């Protein structure tokens, strides 16, 4: 058990961050937080209210109004939810509204958190930061397989172009852009399955923590 330790897992869309972070958390006995859900749920609330996810006031109000029930909605995945999440995530006041909540989650007992800015903004002092990545083609293939498993017949080219567009938007925004922290350890999973990625991550964490 690693009580009190924060492990940051960041990276682009469908790199396998969530799968990896959840498993690391279970292995290390730490709580796990998927921070993408905060932005997905905010985007959903804005769409539901009939506003544009780029509308600053509507998005900020939606972020402030989130409750636990927002995170179990069945419509938080898919192209529309992806792009709405990325749009609200570019708004500084939305990010500010969600920051303390993320910090409180990790501060007391430690946690594994996955997202885009965990190692750069939310927990810049985290002792372990992983930047999980893979080629865009490999990531698009993983997302396409997930959609297929859910019974959604998506066009592979559309999945790839949506993923590229979202990464570009997330990387180019002014506040908390997607980028590795200076002290992040990069894990390229292009040629690794989920099990191999987990074993590699486990070795990186052990080396970093000296155990
Ligand atoms: O959180 P993120 O969007 O980065 O990825 P995810 O939700 O964990 O989804 C990644 C998908 O790729 C899952 O279906 C995994 O089974 C699969 N996968 C993986 O997670 N890691 C690999 N190294 C290879 C495949
Ligand atoms: O699973 P996937 O990698 O496709 O997306 P996600 O992690 O659920 O995040 C959805 C969107 O929320 C991202 O495209 C980002 O725009 C935003 N996000 C963010 O800005 N900061 C975070 N810490 C987590 C997500």
From TrEMBL:
Tell me the superkingdom of the source: Bacteria
**Domain (Cytidylate kinase): residue spans on this chain:** 7-195
The record's annotation in Pfam families points to:
Cytidylate_kin
Signal peptide range equals none
Which Gene3D superfamilies does this one have? P-loop containing nucleotide triphosphate hydrolases (3.40.50.300)
Whether Acetylation counts among this entry's keywords is no
**Entry's Gene Ontology molecular function annotations:** kinase activity
Q: Which UniProt keywords apply?
A: ATP-binding, Cytoplasm, Kinase, Nucleotide-binding, Transferase
Which sequence ranges form a coiled-coil region, renumbered to this chain?
Answer: none
What InterPro entries does this protein's entry cite? Cytidylate_kin, Cytidylate_kinase_dom, P-loop_NTPase
Reactions this protein catalyses: dCMP + ATP = dCDP + ADP; CMP + ATP = CDP + ADP
- Name the CDD domains for this protein: CMPK
Top EC group: transferase
Q: What is its EC number?
A: 2.7.4.25
Name the family the entry cites.
Belongs to the cytidylate kinase family. Type 1 subfamily.
Q: What is the designated name of this protein?
A: Cytidylate kinase
């Amino acid at each position: 058990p690693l009580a009190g330790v924060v492990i940051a897992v960041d990276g682009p869309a469908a790199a396998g961050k969530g799968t990896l972070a959840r498993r690391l958390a279970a292995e290390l006995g730490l709580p796990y937080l998927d921070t993408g859900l905060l932005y997905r749920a905010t985007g959903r609330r804005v769409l539901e209210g009939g506003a544009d996810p780029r509308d600053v006031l509507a998005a900020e109000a939606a972020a402030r109004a989130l409750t636990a029930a927002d995170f179990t909605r069945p419509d938080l995945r898919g192209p529309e939810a992806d792009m709405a999440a990325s749009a609200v995530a570019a708004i500084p006041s939305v990010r500010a509204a969600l920051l303390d909540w993320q910090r409180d989650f990790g501060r007391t007992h430690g946690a594994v958190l996955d997202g885009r800015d965990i190692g750069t903004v939310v927990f810049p002092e985290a002792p372990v930061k992983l930047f999980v990545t893979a080629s865009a083609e490999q990531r698009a293939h993983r997302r396409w397989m997930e959609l297929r498993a859910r019974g959604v017949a998506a066009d592979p080219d559309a999945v790839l172009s949506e993923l590229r567009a979202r990464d570009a938007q997330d990387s180019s925004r002014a506040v908390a852009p997607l980028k590795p922290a200076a002290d992040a350890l990069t894990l390229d999973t292009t040629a690794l399955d989920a099990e191999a990625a987990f074993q590699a991550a486990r070795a990186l964490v052990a080396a970093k923590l000296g155990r």
